[in-house]
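Quick one, tokens below. Sequence please?
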């Protein structure tokens, strides 16, 4: 069975359930007051409300993460993370745009956020993402981009 046939790459609810199980193994954790498993589901996609009387904050599984404040569907975001960090030579926003059917600017912004998070250590991919750093292919130097050759200085006559 291929990794790409996993249900969280194809279904929004499966992706949300996968992230919730990964991020909150003991139940939802309120990012406002850090209360564990004291929240209830409210209307909307995976939205929770803290049941602590002094807090009552709304939150989702993506709040405070690289995937927060994005309009990309969660299953496409998970696929983007997998594809971006598991390909041997890396990938770019143009490839992801064609694979996912998302606008180029959106892909470029998300790829930049993910790479920045990886470099700062804020985001460490887990079990299904290889930790190899994507490499950039070396570009051959053309005559126009090479540094100019230094002219040999003529010996001075003194």
């Amino acid at each position: 069975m291929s990794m790409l046939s996993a249900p969280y790459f194809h279904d929004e609810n499966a992706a949300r359930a996968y992230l919730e199980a990964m991020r909150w193994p003991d139940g939802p954790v309120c990012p406002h007051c850090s209360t564990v498993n004291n929240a209830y589901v409210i209307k909307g996609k995976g939205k929770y409300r803290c049941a602590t009387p002094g807090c009552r904050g709304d939150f989702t599984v993506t709040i405070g993460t690289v995937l927060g404040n994005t309009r990309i569907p969660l299953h496409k975001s998970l696929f983007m993370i997998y594809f971006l960090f598991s390909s041997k030579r890396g990938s770019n926003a143009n490839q992801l745009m064609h694979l996912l059917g998302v606008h180029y600017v959106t892909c470029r912004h998300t790829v930049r956020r993910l790479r920045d998070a990886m470099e700062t250590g804020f985001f460490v991919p887990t079990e299904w993402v290889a930790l190899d750093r994507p490499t950039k292919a070396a570009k051959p130097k053309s005559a126009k981009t090479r540094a100019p050759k230094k002219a040999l200085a003529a010996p001075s006559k003194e």
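The CA atoms of residues 42 and 105 lie 32 Å apart. The chain has two domains: 1-24+66-134, 25-60.
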